[in-house]
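The following block was generated as part of the benchmark described in Methods. Ligand: alpha-D-glucopyranose.
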Amino acid sequence: MLNKLQWWQDGVVYQIYPRSFMDGNGDGIGDLAGIRQRLDYLAWLGVDAIWISPIYPSPMADFGYDVSDYVDIHPLFGTLADFDALLGEAHARGMRVILDFVPNHTSDQHAWFTESRASRDNARHDWYIWRDPAPDGGPPNNWLSAFGGSGWEYDAVRGQYYYHAFLKEQPDLNWRNPAVQDAMLDAMRFWLDRGVDGFRIDVIWHLIKDEDFRENPDNPEYHAQMGEHRRLLSTYNTDRPEVHDVIARMRELLDEYDDRMMVGEIYLPVERLVTYYGTGGRGVHLPFNFQLIGMAWDPALIRTAIDQYEAALPPHGWPNWVLGNHDNHRIASRIGPEQTRLAALLLLTLRGTPTLYYGDELGMCDVPISPDQVQDPLEKNMPGLGLGRDPARSPMQWDDGIGAGFSHATPWLPLGADYPRVNAEALARDPYSLLHLYRKLIHLRDEWSALAVGSYRGFSAGPRLLGYLREREGQRLLVLLNFDAAQQVVDLGGMLSGKILLSTTLKRDGEPVASTLLLDGYEGVIVCADCT
Ligand code: GLC
């Protein structure tokens, strides 16, 4: 562990999907002016940092994850002046700003790609991953795109294929080329100089591909419902050893500045994930831990996952936890609304940095999208498999007025039908709402440092229960979560006598606790041991 605590260790990160957060200019799409209008809400909630999904110029083939200029703002979202204003206003409220950086690929409309594809001998001819066709004229190897179909696209001008891990409109950069590294580091420097506090680095485990372009092996677990993009294992097009050298260069750059951080998007098994902490401070500060997104909502499995993760962390590796993001189904839809309070308690009391996805604090659900409303290219390419990400990207539900307070115009994605009831304004009025639970938990983390940064120790509370102790400097807090719909009595075995600091019902604060504790169905509590 690091000696001095950094802001990204005890803080809470809040992800904003900018198209869907708040529309400031009345075009049905969220923007920077909108985010500025809602900073007071975020300050009230108590989050320490916002991560904003991409806001750069982009043809929007993948809604901003196809960048055509790394050092500007898309006019849809505003201007650089709007960005500076947002940054200043966030900082004035003590809130950090993390930008989404997308280094693996550009848009096919980026000037670098236009140049690169123009001939085989231009100055940027090797900035992307170009390969000759196979002897039969087909793609150079069997690598697949994560968005369906081959990962290779033929370009008639060069008479070669280029590789794209995602859409063909998102050609992968050649990160083995030092000139590409320099250009991308310059782009990061541009934002660091402007004052951003860090980066969420998109698909960081993809950056380097196998030098020999070896064929990927079959995925033994593959079945058609998974989507054809998972037919092969990504053995040779992701997670290559040399990726750690380019991450080290990014880290070196960040370390030239004070207090900056990077969190890497990485979907890998835990033992591979933790290698991204790097050795000797050369890795990302936080490799995103997506275990709670991918696994079944079951206390025994969650316990095992926590234990394995804690055991796998390198000595300097700071943990982190995520319940949802713009690429996955919403937590309320995955586990059902009756368990969203348990999820909030879990996210905000596990050891490590929590990342909260906008709207999850309201219990927003996946919004059904009819075929004619589909925006997401993933759903368009592989329809009907439930892969589409639009349902989790619906507009933030601010109030019960026109357009849920998000926009007066028709929003780019449909609103959740529950917005007249499930909205920030209504929930802020109800002291027992999920929103108040999130707020209280976030504030408790400030008050009780054991919750944010204390040690973690499992506590066997019984079947269908999850329990753990968080301890620090004389603070001893026991967290208990009942994953069952029925009431359960927890035997505390005389290990403590204290009081309830918080129950997910928000109605038992201060209740004394002795040898046993009765938990309601799906109730969770934080017990302060030794408190009188
Ligand atoms: C990341 C983003 C996702 C995007 C993909 C390609 O996984 O989170 O939204 O589609 O990268 O850039």
